[in-house]
Design a protein that fits this description.
alpha+beta, 2 domains, 6-stranded mixed β-sheet, two-stranded antiparallel sheet, 4 helices, 37% strand, elongated
Length: 174
């Protein structure tokens, strides 16, 4: 996703386009991306300094970490990029420490934003996706999806050898 800087005028510009999954190398073990990604960029250019505020709309199919059901989700990722001409990256650490701002050098002709967009999207994916906040998961005995209803399993009694620990726990709570 290269932005031609020579076509941009000083001041503010808006760019909107759709980026393909292949060009962003959007492969993830935890999610399957279902469509190309619309991207909207607000670019502020002044001499060799460029600030980009962007958003990308992402559609994914994920597997719930509790009940293992697949579900579709659509969300918007916000990101910010600061760019200076190569060799003029002064203050990079301070800008990146302020938040989720990427610092990327440019050569005066073009600015490559693909890796920044890809990283922002992948970082926004949850580690343990849930189909819904109150997902009940699977029965530990029979494996039935407890969101669909209760099961008729006989609950397994804890091993008697652990009963002393249970008693200590109850005494501590008192």
């Amino acid at each position: 996703m290269k932005i031609n800087l020579q076509e941009l005028r000083d001041g503010e510009s808006i760019l909107e386009f759709t980026e393909s999954l292949a060009s962003l190398d959007m492969s993830s073990e935890s999610a399957s991306f279902t469509s190309d990604i619309p991207v909207r960029l607000k670019i502020y250019k002044h001499d060799n300094e460029i600030i980009v505020w962007g958003s990308a709309t992402v559609e994914v199919t994920e597997e719930c970490s509790r009940c293992l059901a697949t579900f579709d989700r659509k969300f918007v990722v916000q990101f910010e990029v600061f760019s200076d001409k190569m060799g003029a990256q002064k203050g990079k650490e301070e800008r990146e420490a302020e938040g989720e701002t990427f610092s990327v050098p440019h050569d005066g002709k073009s600015l490559e934003l693909g890796p920044c967009v890809r990283e922002a999207i992948l970082l926004s994916l949850p580690i343990r996706p849930l189909c819904r906040e109150d997902c009940k998961g699977l029965c530990p005995v029979c494996g039935k999806d407890l969101n669909a209803g209760t099961c008729d399993c006989r609950k397994v009694e804890p091993d008697a050898r652990w009963s002393i620990l249970e008693r200590l726990k109850k005494e501590k709570e008192k």
